[in-house]
Amino acid sequence: MRTGRAPLILALWFLAVLSFSGLARAGETYYQECTSTISGNFNGTAIPAGDYVWFTAVLSLKGLSSSPTPLYVSQSTITFTANDTTYTITVPDSTIAFSSRTTLASTDFTQLKPSVLGEGWDTNLQFSGLAGNDLLTAVTFPVPSEGLPGGIQNVTWQATFSSIVSGLTVNWQWAAAAYTSFSADYNALGVKPVDDNKASQYQNSDHAGTPEDYKDFVTGGATGGGGSNFTGSYSATGSCALTPDGSSSVTRGGSS
């Protein structure tokens, strides 16, 4: 079950790499994929024009059995309707690498490999021992001139996950926080890559996806209440098992 051009090109790229390395053998399938959708709701706080919504998604990857393990996130979109206008936000792709060689978790916004993924989040994580969730991807949405009302329903985030490693299951959630000021340069935000309070340069209790350099500008709105809630409250948890033929899941529920 292919969901579009990017996952298909990823599959071909994986096959080419494996064939070149001599790892591919007739009759064996390496490319794994799943597509997952989570719908949630914003809280009752309106967000004025000129502010920003910081959407973040986090994951907990199950089934890690060998190092290194790559996970690719592509064709990610967020859709919602407000003020009789339907918005579709294209979320940057991401590559997430779990490796025993990584000693400090990090994330950067850069050109990804393969190049079909374009610019996105390149996250490198320790293979084991991480507490909590890890950054999946993130995107900024500048609030339009008419502002956003409170109580927006059915905010829907969809993403496709791919890997050459079998047996993986992605458990993920999304959240959204409002900010009065933000940077268009993702690398200037100081995004925390993990929940873990010792695994990255940001040794604090903030959630993965927190823009550490802009925390002073957080305010109420989206799924957050401001204060020390720098990412917003999380949606329900979606679970997506990667399979050779592709799989899909749909999760509905308000923010928690």
Describe the structure.
It is built from one helix and 14 strands. Strand 3 (69-82) and strand 4 form a beta hairpin. The protein has one helix spanning 5-21; strands at 32-40, 52-62, 69-82, 85-91, 94-99, 106-111, 119-126, 134-142, 155-163, 169-179, 218-222, 224-225, 238-241, 248-252. Strands 1, 3, 4, 5, 6, 7, 9 and 14 form an eight-stranded mixed beta sheet that branches. Strands 2, 8, 10, 11, 12 and 13 form a six-stranded antiparallel beta sheet that branches. Helices cover 7% and strands 41% of the residues. Mean pLDDT is 91; it is low at 1-5 and 15-28. By secondary structure, the protein is mainly beta. It has one domain (5-252).
